[in-house]
């Protein structure tokens, strides 16, 4: 069922997962990937602040591009966090193997930062959402088999969670949509709040 927002919405991301979540929820939106350069390390030893900063950088990049002239820009960044370090997107197969070995048999934090940027007056609304994700202990053979699927490419934490009965991952706390890359439950409440005339 289509959901009509009283403002234009532009997704500042080329993420297939974020696009899927918005489309599945019934929203109409444009896509304008930010191509913003993301920092590789958190500056404040806090994943919450890291995703807040990166989401803002993505929204700002699209706002400065002047390709969007009205409505809201929606930007998000999702990363894992373990041992006080960001778990970013793997650089290659070897890096993905390192990440999977690090996460195997452990619970890690998964943070998404969301930034909504109104183009007309540069009003910005930001928040961050946490999920806890447990990866079951993987054998060396299971890791290599997973690497062969190439599902880890472009994914923070070197994994893309399946919506139903993921064979490797379990959400201990938080929402599935947040782990996919956009916390839809809280985002929909935010859309309702932003739609109220002020």
Automatic annotation (TrEMBL):
The active site is at residue 77. It catalyses: a ribonucleoside 5'-triphosphate + H2O = a ribonucleoside 5'-phosphate + diphosphate + H(+); a 2'-deoxyribonucleoside 5'-triphosphate + H2O = a 2'-deoxyribonucleoside 5'-phosphate + diphosphate + H(+). SUPFAM superfamilies: ITPase-like (SSF52972). GO terms for biological process: nucleotide metabolic process. CDD domains: Maf. Coiled coil: none annotated. Gene3D superfamilies: 3.90.950.10. Transmembrane segments: none annotated. Its EC number is 3.6.1.9. GO terms for molecular function: nucleoside triphosphate diphosphatase activity. Keywords: Cytoplasm, Hydrolase, Nucleotide metabolism. Its cofactor is a divalent metal cation. GO terms for cellular component: cytoplasm. It is found in: Cytoplasm. The keyword Cell wall biogenesis/degradation does not apply. It is an enzyme of class 3 (hydrolase). Its main location: cytoplasm. Belongs to the Maf family. Nucleoside triphosphate pyrophosphatase. May have a dual role in cell division arrest and in preventing the incorporation of modified nucleotides into cellular nucleic acids. HAMAP family: Maf. This is Nucleoside triphosphate pyrophosphatase. It comes from Telmatocola sphagniphila. The gene is maf.
């Amino acid at each position: 069922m289509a959901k009509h927002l009283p403002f234009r919405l532009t997704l500042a991301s080329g993420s297939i997962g974020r696009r899927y979540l918005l489309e599945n929820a019934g929203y109409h939106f444009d896509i304008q990937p930010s191509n913003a350069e993301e920092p590789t390390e958190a500056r404040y030893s806090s994943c919450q602040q890291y995703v807040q900063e990166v989401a803002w950088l993505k929204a700002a990049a699209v706002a400065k591009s002047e390709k969007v002239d009205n409505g809201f820009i929606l930007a998000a960044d999702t990363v894992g966090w373990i041992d006080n370090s960001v778990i970013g997107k793997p650089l290659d197969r070897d890096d993905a193997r390192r990440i999977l070995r690090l996460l195997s048999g452990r619970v890690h934090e998964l943070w998404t930062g969301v930034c909504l940027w109104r183009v007309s007056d540069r009003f910005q609304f930001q928040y961050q959402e946490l999920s806890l994700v447990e990866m079951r202990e993987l054998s060396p053979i299971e890791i290599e088999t997973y690497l062969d699927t190439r599902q880890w490419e472009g994914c923070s934490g070197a994994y893309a969670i399946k919506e139903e009965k993921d064979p490797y991952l379990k959400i201990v706390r938080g929402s599935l949509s947040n782990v996919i890359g956009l916390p839809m439950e809280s985002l929909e409440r935010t859309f309702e709040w932003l739609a109220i005339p002020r």
